[in-house]
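Researcher: Going back to the complex we discussed earlier. I've cleaned up the inputs and rechecked each line, so this should be the final set. Can you rerun the prediction on the complete assembly and write out the structure?
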Amino acid sequence: MKNESEYSGILIFAEQQEGKIHPISFELLGKGRELADRLGEELSAVLLGHNMKDVAKELIYHGADKVYLFDHPSLRDFDIVLYKENIVDLVKEIKPKFFLVGATHLGRSLAPRVAAALETGLTADCIDLQLDEKGDLIQIRPAFTGNILAHIKTRTRPVMTTIRYKIFEKMKPDTSRKGEIIERKVKLIENTGTRVLRKERERTVNISDAEIIVSGGRGLKKPEDFKLLRELAELLGGVVGSSRPLVDQGWISKDHQVGFSGNTVKPKLYIACGISGSPQHLAGMRDSKIIVAINIDPSAPIFRVADYGIVGDLYEIVPQLIKEIKKRKFGDD
Amino acid sequence: MNEMHIIVLIKEVPDMNKVKFDAERGVIDRSSAPGEINPFDLNALETALQIKEKLGGKITVISMGPPQAERSLRDALARGADRAILLTDKRMAGADTLATSYTLASAVKKVGNFDLIICGEKTVDGDTGQVGPEVAELLKIPHVSYVSEIREVSRDRLIVVSELGDAYLIELKLPGLITVTKDINEPRLPTFKDKMRARKAVIDKWTAEDLSDVADINKFGFSGSPTMVVKVIIPQERVKSCQIFKGENAVKDLVDIFEKKGVLK
Ligand SMILES: Cc1cc2nc3c(=O)[nH]c(=O)nc-3n(C[C@H](O)[C@H](O)[C@H](O)COP(=O)(O)OP(=O)(O)OC[C@H]3O[C@@H](n4cnc5c(N)ncnc54)[C@H](O)[C@@H]3O)c2cc1C
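Model: Rerun complete. Updated structure for the full complex:
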């Protein structure tokens, strides 16, 4: 383990897919900016892709002082090994104190390889970062299906962590911000062992970005009944979610699954219909701003995390809700 | 050519629906619930069994854990694995993901001659999903995470579907490593006969010393772990309690709230 004082500044991984920056990267810059200012140090981003020069500027507008750009046709699609090689070389040279990566599936596949190559610690899926009195990073993550929060420190440098989506605020982009885009020579590898052949399937819904979610659980009697929830969701400008059993039964695609083995969501409004509120389901939605539960069983655990609830049969309540909302929105009866 | 050799890495975890949390000491009270194979690792083992059914070969399962993790390895043997190795030693205790990956990668090196390593996407107790990719890096082999389907498999390559938000079709050259999601298959259950057979099977037990020819044992366990938990907090139950709407006006009252909170546009 090297001398700590050699390390300074914060680096974030700017994730792009098809030339577009994933919004989590801006969130990392938002938090990174705050930490960097408190430390009085620099905030940099590393971006790999093809024809990304204009996109790199966006990172500066969102708070980066420097963008290390690796631009090459062979970096257009992600190749974890190739990405790792280039990032590891950069980290060894610029020696950031902290290195933040978004906890997307791509980030959670890439970050461990980088950490292992650097023989440094990596903390997964953090929901908060704090500085202690010595300027060391305290990484906070849920554990035990979200029932506890662990505070973690790392004794190697850089401190690496993956950060959950939609936790930190991004800065308002400021096109007058100045920063430096540093083009790096790309290290190429003949055969990395993996090759993206094609995109197989677009996700049917991007539920982690949704502001309003109407979710169904085993209180639903048959697959067609998702129609009812979909009607309510569309009326509210939202999308449909699901607990896991219905996904397992093939009633709805996995893209809709909320929870520990599905998607983590944080909408403005989450309406749980016929969902009991198991720890694994709560792990994916407990941070929603407003939680509404509709359940026939007054003792269902979902009511313990809900802000509002109606005890009753969803087959009666949901149609009434639809009717009432239509009435107020369109004035028809 | 010799036969296909698949290694499956498994972890014994407590049944998360039963296990209690020791708030005072800030640790999971493992004695409060029986151990079992991490559910995602059952999908990893099933993936290996299906490949073996197609191409032949053998399956080795490796686990690091306390001596009682032996029962999870017996379960894996009952389900069809051919060989089981338990890495167990006080010096391996207290490992974070890097030390765990280093220990597992060392054991894989010692076993040698493998074509494919399969892991679950994450464990239900640690929930990091980091060990698979870290092992791949330490062994200098390529990997693909979040595999939900195997389209083609041969001795020297796999074609898999990887869930990365959108799903991608990816070719992986072997030797390589994959981590699999719960959707990839439905794990089989062992028969009574299989269980009886597995009860008598031999499980190799390796200590830190046994790995000293391939590893630096100071990198095992707590001493090899760069991350440490400094504090554990049990989040306060939310003080605001749930407002239940009742009676005839329940739905109207709820929609009033929607209006007030600005969700009706
Ligand atoms: C490793 C692992 C990972 C998991 N990951 C996830 C995950 O990501 N997401 C997830 O959701 N689960 C997950 N689970 C499963 C989880 O443990 C629960 O089994 C599941 O969440 C229960 O789903 P449910 O609430 O829909 O069903 P149930 O628990 O059966 O609840 C159904 C509810 O509907 C109510 N109800 C019935 N009829 C009506 C009606 N007519 N009107 C109103 N209410 C009605 C009932 O009172 C009950 O509360 C996971 C489990 C494991 C072991």
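Model: Worth noting: Residues A 217-219, 243-245, 257-262, 274-276, 278, 280-281, 284, 294-297, 300, 313-315; B 39, 124 surround flavin-adenine dinucleotide (CB under 6 Å).
Researcher: Good, that matches what I expected from the previous run.
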